[in-house]
Design brief:
7-stranded antiparallel beta sheet; 7 strands; about 30% strand; elongated
């Protein structure tokens, strides 16, 4: 004969254990998020995103100055000066900083190196590409640029995120035009 009282008691214990496990997981995830938000991320530390595209397409994408202007956002314009030479214009705090670079193809991927930095390490944006373990291409970005106030680890991650979206869907996600993208007091 089945002891329904005992079955209910065991079921309650399972539910209590599951609830405790979910609560513990929530605290753990919350801790990770708090630590990630509290810690400033240096743009010199590499950020990596995987894209569902072959390596050759990724390399071609990052060599196009129009794509670079889109993924690096509203404060950066990139234009071709001549073959394998790009001009980056950074608009920050009401002033513009111009940075001329050459594009080097390296064994890892691409490097956008300041023109005066041929012999000494200096400002540069380095993109490393690799085969991702589960398919696609890993894109790792590291930046040391003449606008350190603008360029952070979050900025490099955002650029990678936008690049992946643009390659996979043909557009960059935005809130512009959405009812939730209301103007704030600072926008008026």
């Amino acid at each position: 004969m089945v002891d329904f009282g005992r079955v209910v008691q065991n079921a309650n214990r399972v539910v209590d254990s599951a609830g405790k496990a979910v609560n513990d997981a929530g605290h753990t995830v919350g801790g990770f998020v708090r630590r990630a938000v509290d810690r400033p991320v240096d743009a010199r530390k590499p950020q990596t995103v995987t894209v569902a595209a072959p390596r050759a397409q990724v390399m071609q994408f990052w060599r196009d100055p129009e794509n670079l202007s889109k993924v690096f956002g509203d404060h950066v314009r990139v234009e071709t000066v001549e073959a394998n030479r790009l001009r980056w214009t950074w608009d920050t705090a009401g002033r513009s900083t111009i940075w001329d670079t050459r594009v080097d193809v390296t064994s890892e991927g691409l490097a956008f190196v300041g023109e005066d930095d041929a012999d000494t390490p200096g400002p540069r944006v380095v993109l490393a590409v690799s085969d991702a373990p589960r398919g696609g291409t890993g894109m790792t970005l590291r930046a040391e640029v003449p606008a350190p106030d603008l360029v952070t680890g979050a900025w490099t991650f955002t650029a990678l995120y936008r690049a992946r979206a643009l390659m996979q869907t043909g557009e960059i996600p935005t809130l512009q035009g959405s009812p939730s993208a209301r103007e704030s007091e600072g926008d008026a």
